[in-house]
Amino acid sequence: AQSVTQPDIHITVSEGASLELRCNYSYGATPYLFWYVQSPGQGLQLLLKYFSGDTLVQGIKGFEAEFKRSQSSFNLRKPSVHWSDAAEYFCAVGANAGNNRKLIWGLGTSLAVNP
Amino acid sequence: EAQVTQNPRYLITVTGKKLTVTCSQNMNHEYMSWYRQDPGLGLRQIYYSMNVEVTDKGDVPEGYKVSRKEKRNFPLILESPSPNQTSLYFCASKQGTNEKLFFGSGTQLSVL
Questions:
Q1: Which residues of chain B does A36 touch, with a Cβ-Cβ cutoff of 8 Å?
Q2: What is the pLDDT of residues B16-45, one digit of tens each?
């Protein structure tokens, strides 16, 4: 079955520290992978996506993610976290379900940033 | 500005009182979808629409209705709300096979 696992429910980092949020997926075919961010009281916004090609993808707000097929992972990274990065982060895989190109969502990782 | 607009942002109602949450997008997107977000359950798709007059069930459609009479609008209807429909609801849209979903700001619904 298709699934997305975000092992860390909650992470706290200090401002300026590096960040890595983990995402593991289970999907039979070549996956389309996404990271979305949800700031408090807001809808979700796309950070970056991987469809094919270079396995290291760059996104908005200084984020990047690396697709590792052998590990079924798509971890999100940022070299230096800012206080404004405190938010909920969701990993998702694009899956075909009939005529519905839907997203299978992870349960999210809540990021807190200490000053 | 490209956006998905949901209304209302907050809604408190009582069991059985019909309600509609509106969703409108100004990007001429063909695909629209409704999700609900619950703690520990993540985002679950309720209904989706591939185009005008084309709607289909998502993962958790029970207790909900939708319609797509115009391309820009995709209202979510709860004919007889129940407390287990208390949740945060999001409308989203995208264009064709472009996987980037645009989300509304959400509607926090409480059914008493």
A1: 101
A2: 999 999 999 999 999 999 999 998 898 999
